[in-house]
Amino acid sequence: MAKRIDVKDLNLFYGKFHAVQQVSLSVPPRNVTAFIGPSGCGKSTVLRSLNRMHEVAPGARVEGTVQLDGEDIYASTVDPVQVRRTIGMVFQRPNPFPTMSIRDNVVAGLKLAGVKNKKQLDEVAERSLRGANLWNEVKDRMDRPGGGLSGGQQQRLCIARAIAVQPDVLLMDEPCSALDPISTLAIEDLITELKKEYTIVIVTHNMQQAARVSDQTAFFNLLGVGQPGQLIEVDDTEKIFSNPTQKATEDYISGRFG
Amino acid sequence: MVLIGAIGLFLLVQAIPSLALDNANFLFSREWSTGDVTNMRYGILDLFLVTVVSAAFALLIAMPVALGIALFLTQYAPRRLARPFAYVIDLLAAVPSIIFGLWGLFVLGPVLTPLGEWLISSLGFIPLFAKGNVSIALGGTIFTAGIVLAVMILPIITAVSREVFDRTPGPHIEGAIALGATKWEVVRTTVLPFGKAGYVSASMLGLGRALGETIALTIILSATGSSFGWSLFDGGATFASKIALAAPEFNDPKSAGAYIAAGLVLFVLTFVVNAAARTIVAGHKEYE
C-alpha cells in the first residue's frame, strides 16, 4: 500500500531538449503533494517520470533516480509495465475506454493483470466505484458504455479504474482542468478521502486547488524560453502559500508573475 | 445515386427479353449455353458459386495478413521503416490486373501446384480440398485465383486499416499504458476496438473488388465442362470472367442479354456486400 517516493537529481530530456533539470524531492506516504508552476515548466513531465510514462514519448530520456520505498524504479532489472501497475495515473482529460462498459472500464487493469474470476471482478468494481464516489450514480447501468457519462463522472470513473488495482501511488495530471466547478469540488473531496490510503501527487494550474487539497507543494519555474524547468522550492503547503523562502514563488503565488 | 439507378435500369431492360427466352432456370441451373439460338439455356448457379467462393477465399487470406501488416506498421515498426514499407504495399495497388493475371498463371500457378497436390492428398476428404475438375498441373484453379485476388485486395484493406489504427486517440493509448498494459495489450484494449469497424468496412471494400475482378481471373481460371463441385481446385468462371470471355457474342442481342442478366446479378451482389458493410459499421458507431 501507500509508499514514499524519493526523487534524486532527476534530469529529463525530449531528444536533445533538456526539459527538466536537477529535481530532488520526497513525497511521504498518505500525503498529497501538489506540483504548481507556469505552463511549460516541466511539472507534468516530472509527474510522468514517476511512473515511467515519460519514456513513452519518442526520444524521451531520463537521468537520476526515482525510488519507491527505497527501490529504484529505473533500475535495469525493473519492467516499466510492472511499475505502472503499482503507480496509478489519472489524466487531464477523462479517458475511459469508449468501447468498454462502465464495469469493464473499472476492472480493465485487473483484467490486464490476469484476474478472471467474475465475482471478484464485480466486487472490485463496486468497491472502486464506491471509493470514487460514483457507485450510486452508475450502479444501475454498469453495462452501459463509459463514454455516456458526464465529464465529471468520466473522470471519477478513471479514478475508480486507477484505484481498482490498489496502487501504491496515485498520480494526477491536472485532473480537474476539463471539469466544471461542481465536478471539481467532487474530485477534490475525493482526493482528501483517498489520501487516507494512497500517496497522491497532483499537478494543478489552480493555486486555490493546491492550497485546498495538498499537504506539501512543489513550485516549478522556467528561467527562460528554451531553458530547462527547475524545482524552485518544495515545502509544507501552508508555508509555501504564506511565507515562501524564494522570491519567485512569492511572485507566482501572489499573481505578480506570468 | 441517379447514375447507379440508371445503370441498374439499363441492365434490367436489356436482360428481361433474354430471360424470357431462357429454357433453364436462371438462378438455379448450372447450365450455360448460348450457342443454339433456338434453345438458349443459361443458369447462373455455377458462376455465382465460383465468384463467391473465390472472393471469400481471397478475403480469408487477405484479412489476417492485412491486419497484421496494418498493426505492425502503425504500432510496432519504427517510423523510418514504416514509411517505405507502407509505400511498397500501396504500390501493389498500382499494378494493373492484367499483370496480376499473367503472374498468377505463369509464376504463382506452377509454384502452388505441389502445395495443391499435397492438400488434395492429405486433406482431400474435405470437399473444399477434393480433387478438382481441371488439371492442377496447369494451376488454373480457384485456389490460384483466390491467392492472386488476395494479393490484389491486400493494399486497399491494409491502407484503410492503417489509416484507422493510426487515428486511435492518444489519451486512450496513454490510459492503457498507465494501467500497466504491454504493447500488445494496448493494441487489444484500445487500437483494435477503436479500429474494428474501419477494418471490417475496409475488408468489405476488398471483397467488392474481388467479386468484380475480371481480367486476372479470365486469364487464370481454366475453363471446364463439368460443374462446380465445391473444391478449391475446380476451375470454371466467375460472372465477370464469363462475361469478358463472351465479348465476341455481344453482336447477337439475345445472347448479349443473357450476359447482361448475369452482370445484373453481379451488380446486385456487390451492392448487397456494400450495404452489409455499411450496416456493420453503423451498428458499431452506436456504442461510441
TrEMBL record, chain A:
Look up and give the membrane topology term.
Answer: Peripheral membrane protein
Q: Where in the cell is it found?
A: Cell inner membrane
Report the principal subcellular site.
membrane
Return any one Pfam family short name: ABC_tran
The record's SUPFAM superfamilies line, in alphabetical order, gives: P-loop containing nucleoside triphosphate hydrolases
Alphabetized GO MF terms? ATP binding; ATP hydrolysis activity; phosphate transmembrane transporter activity
Q: Which UniProt keywords apply?
A: ATP-binding, Cell membrane, Membrane, Nucleotide-binding, Phosphate transport, Translocase, Transport
Leader sequence residues: none
Write down the Gene3D superfamilies for this protein, in alphabetical order. Answer: P-loop containing nucleotide triphosphate hydrolases (3.40.50.300)
Q: Which GO terms describe its biological process?
A: phosphate ion transmembrane transport
PROSITE patterns to which the protein is assigned, alphabetical: ABC_TRANSPORTER_1, ABC_TRANSPORTER_2
Cellular component (GO) terms are: plasma membrane
rRNA processing recorded as keyword: no
Describe the location of the ABC transporter domain by residue ranges: 5-247
The protein's matches in PANTHER family, at most eight in alphabetical order, are given as: ABC TRANSPORTER I FAMILY MEMBER 17 (PTHR43423:SF1)
- Job of this protein: Part of the ABC transporter complex PstSACB involved in phosphate import. Responsible for energy coupling to the transport system.
**Protein name, please?**
Phosphate ABC transporter ATP-binding protein (PhoT family)
Q: Supply the source organism for this entry.
A: Umezawaea tangerina
TrEMBL record, chain B:
Molecular function GO terms recorded: phosphate transmembrane transporter activity
- The organism's superkingdom is given as Bacteria
Q: Where in the cell is it found?
A: Cell membrane
Which parts of the chain span the membrane according to its record?
44-73, 85-112, 132-157, 214-233, 256-277
Query: Topologically, how does it sit relative to the membrane?
Result: Multi-pass membrane protein
Enumerate the Gene3D superfamilies for this protein. Answer: MetI-like
Which GO biological-process labels does this protein carry?
phosphate ion transport
What Pfam families does the annotation carry? BPD_transp_1 (PF00528)
Q: Keyword annotations for this protein?
A: Cell membrane, Membrane, Phosphate transport, Transmembrane, Transmembrane helix, Transport
Q: GO cellular component annotations, sorted alphabetically?
A: plasma membrane
What SUPFAM superfamilies does its record include?
A: MetI-like
Keyword Zinc present in the record's keywords: the answer is no
Domain (ABC transmembrane type-1) ranges: 48-277
Q: Which function does this protein serve?
A: Part of the binding-protein-dependent transport system for phosphate; probably responsible for the translocation of the substrate across the membrane.
By sequence similarity, the record places it as follows: Belongs to the binding-protein-dependent transport system permease family. CysTW subfamily.
Query: What is the protein's given name?
Result: Phosphate transport system permease protein
Name the source organism.
Answer: Umezawaea tangerina
Q: Provide the taxonomic classification.
A: Bacteria, Bacillati, Actinomycetota, Actinomycetes, Pseudonocardiales
